[in-house]
Amino acid sequence: MVYIFAVGGGLTLLLVSYFASKTRHPFFTGVSSAVLGAGGLAAVNLLAPVTGVALPANLVTGFVAAVLSLPGVIALLLIKFFWRV
C-alpha cells in the first residue's frame, strides 16, 4: 500500500513539475505555489478554534499542500467533510 502512495505522489510531483516548467518563470511558479499551499494549510489550522475544522500537520498533508497548493488543501477539506475522516 505504501508503494501505491509513493508512486502516485511521484507521478503527481512529475506532472506538476512538468506543467510548472512550461510557464515563464518555472522556479518562481513552483515556490509560490508551495508557499500558497502551506499558507492555506496554516490558515485552516489557525482558524480551527473558530470553525471546528483542522487538518493534521503530517507528511501527507504537507506534500499535498506543497505540490497541489490551494486546490490540494481544499480537496483535503472536502475529503475530511464528506468521508468524516
Tally of strands: 0
Helix content: over 70%
Order of helices and strands: HHHH
Structural class: mainly alpha
Chain-averaged pLDDT: 90
The shape, in one word, is globular
From the N-terminal CA to the C-terminal CA, the straight-line distance is 18 Å
The number of helical elements comes to 4
Write the layout of secondary structure elements.
Blueprint: H1 2-21, H2 26-46, H3 48-51, H4 59-83
Structure write-up:
- The chain is 82% helix and 0% strand.
- The mean pLDDT is 90.
- By secondary structure, the protein is mostly helical.
Task: Write a concise synopsis of the structure shown.
By secondary structure, this protein is mainly α.
For this entry, give a set of tags.
85 residues; single chain; 82% helix; globular; mainly alpha; 4 helices
